Amino acid sequence: MPATVSAVRTAVTEVLTESSSAEIAVTAVVLASALFAFGSIYQASTLRSSVIRATGLKVALVTLSVAVMHNGWLSRFDGPVTEWMIAHRSHGLNQIAVAVTDLGSPVATAILGIGAGAVLSWQARSVIPGIVVVGTVGSAAVASTVMKAVVARERPPTASQVLLETDHSFPSGHVTGTGALIGIVVLLVAMQHTPSVKRLLMLVAVVVTLVVALTRLYLGVHWLTDVVAGAALATFAVTIGGAAFRYLDNRSRPKHDALTPSTSADPRIAAAEYRTL
């Protein structure tokens, strides 16, 4: 037992003080990816699958945070990516990138989140979708702010920025907010459609988040690990938000069913209708 404790302590110390190790970084990334993938295909329990996915995302976020704070191996790609983006700028692309980043700003995300939540609640005749959308986006924003303060990473040099931003860089708030908003809205809408439509909607969410992430890199206001962490944090928030929606929705259904009289005169048909709810 003492030997096991010593080995764990040594591993943790190495991660925290020697995070430049490629082996540790790759192992953590593989573990996080495996947990997320397994949670995505695990069908025995929706709650358990959400917990497994969330655990994988937490491992990824911790790994990225440690790598950034200690200049680890994963952050070695930040500089080259930023330099490549700067080398491929043009006036037209600058205008497009600025427009996209404005649409993904915290203020725009908050407005769109409230609007989307209101529309989904109106369609469902329930406050639950609105609460989940606003709660998911809001919690993602709070988590992003806390992580920025804890990690306290400097942004790329101001000389390389198209838009001047001087607050902390990790994770990207634009990517976090946009990913959380589009992700939770797509998740709630997709529940009402066929698997093929669900996959298409999920693809749309991924593409929108990726575009915002690329614009942040292009504008020189974030490093690569910033936007990756923002996407991971957004996915974590959507995972928790989806689980919360299913829980709240299931809690509300029995009351609704008990108060709603059956429209069928045949007890057998009424029972069949109840089972399908």
Q: Please provide the ordered H/E string of secondary-structure elements.
A: HHHHHHHHHHH
Estimate the strand proportion. Answer: under 5%
**Overall pLDDT confidence:** 79
Shape: globular
Structural class: mainly alpha
Distance between the termini: 52 Å
Biggest beta sheet summary: none
* Number of separate strands: 0
Radius of gyration of CA atoms, rounded to a whole number: 22 Å
What is the number of helical segments per DSSP (H or I, 4+ residues)? 11
Unreliable stretches (pLDDT < 50, length at least 5) are 15-20, 255-277
User: Helical content, roughly?
Assistant: over 70%
Topology (elements, then pairings):
Layout: H1 2-17, H2 22-41, H3 46-69, H4 78-87, H5 91-103, H6 106-124, H7 128-151, H8 173-190, H9 195-218, H10 224-259, H11 267-276
Helix pairs in contact: 2-3, 3-10, 5-9, 6-7, 6-8, 7-8, 7-10, 8-9, 8-10, 9-10
Describe the structure.
The protein has about 280 residues and is mainly alpha-helical. The chain has eleven helices and no strands. The chain has helices at about 1-15, 20-40, 45-70, 80-85, 90-105, 105-125, 130-150, 175-190, 195-220, 225-260, 265-275. Helix 5 crosses helix 9 and helix 8 runs antiparallel to helix 9. The longest helix has about 35 residues, at about 225-260. It is globular and about 55 Å long. The termini are far apart. The model is unreliable at about 15-20 and about 255-275 (pLDDT under 50).
